[in-house]
Amino acid sequence: MLRHPSGDLPGTVLAHMVLVILALVSGLSFVYYGVEILSRPRLEEEFSRYGLTDFRGLVGVLELLGGAGVILGVVLAPLGALAALGLSVLMLLGIVVRIRIGDAPRLMAPAALLCLLNSALVILFVSS
């Protein structure tokens, strides 16, 4: 049977590569969006539209911390699992807010995809 130089089976190496790629996509996305939320006046207007002006700073910080936690989860799986779970919940809440204000489904797609991505990451981190 083929083995990776580290001694891992090829399937294990592939699963780890998928975990790393998905963690980087999610983590970097949330770090980017967290900075955007905290620094862009346009997003201040969006949070006002959501009726959540007072929560803008909290959401931005949670996205920054969650993104960093998912990236660090590559080496600290329990941290990655908790961060990905928190981001999944945050995105689920974002979908609820958009439904509540009557946004079109296409505007909910990014939150839905990030919710699914982070839910998959929870499973990958827990099983790694």
How would you describe this protein?
The chain is mainly α. It has one domain (10-127). The protein has helices at 10-39, 41-50, 56-72, 77-100, 105-127. Helix 1 packs across helix 5 and helix 3 runs antiparallel to helix 4. It is elongated, with a radius of gyration of 17 Å. The model has no long low-confidence stretch (mean pLDDT 92).
Strand content: under 5%
Oligomer: single chain
Order of helices and strands: HHHHH
Give the C-alpha Rg.
17 Å
How many domains make up the 3D coordinates? 1
Topology, element by element:
Layout: H1 10-39, H2 41-50, H3 56-72, H4 77-100, H5 105-127
In short:
The protein is an all-alpha fold and 128 residues long.
Labels describing this entry:
128 residues, mainly alpha, 5 helices, elongated
